[in-house]
Amino acid sequence: MSQDNLIKMTCQDCKRINYWSTRNKKSVENKIELKKYCKWCKKHVLHKETKK
User: Fold this and answer.
1) Cβ–Cβ < 8 Å for 19, 13
2) What CA–CA distances, in Å, run from 47 to 34, 39?
């Protein structure tokens, strides 16, 4: 993965960084929000993109 496109996905319940992903910064201007599984909360929770 290229370092300049790498983003962190943070759980909105427990505020832990659970996932790393990439995005095309030219085509996607808003921050990414996805429902992903959090192993600490043990459920599917909204994860938002955070700063590096």
Assistant:
1) no
2) 5, 12
pLDDT tens-place string over residues 1-52? 667 788 999 999 999 999 999 888 888 889 999 999 999 999 999 999 998 6
Q: If you compute the radius of gyration of the chain from its CA atoms, what whole number of angstroms results?
A: 11
Kindly list the structural domains of the chain, giving each domain's residue range(s) and its CATH number in brackets, ordered by start.
3-50 (2.20.28.120)
Concatenated DSSP letters for 1-52? --GGGEEEEEETTT--EEEEEE--TTT--SPPEEEEEETTTTEEEEEEEE--
**Structure tokens of 20?**
């790393």
pLDDT of residue 52: 66
